[in-house]
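Changelog note: in this version the structure field was regenerated for every chain. One regenerated record is shown below for reference.
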Amino acid sequence: MLSNSHAYSGFSANDIQKAKEFYAETLGLKVTEEHGMLTLHLAGGGKVIIYPKDDHEPALFTVLNFPVDNIDQAVDGLAKAGIRFERYEGISQDERGIQREYGPPIAWFKDPAGNILSVLEG
């Protein structure tokens, strides 16, 4: 029934302007704003909506993953842009925050609203 629908995901933020600056300027994504909401235009034609929510509570899981060819280069570039990588108890991560033990190498960081994002190799 929905196999031809161009589905997209969405999540909330408590400050749309801070989110817009972060996703456009820090991460370098194409971001448009309409009706008080942001649309992230991802490579390959995907989209993600970010909508305002005054009582926003960040999810306790990753809401957006960015596959990269080289995680070391991606982490270095993001760190230079001011991104701080998350450390999780019980997960083996190197000094830069990259988990390499299970699955593809991955590193997690947060947007200004506390939403968890990641870069992962592959």
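Spot check on this record: Residues 16-26 form the longest helix (11 residues). The CA atoms of residues 67 and 122 lie 6 Å apart.
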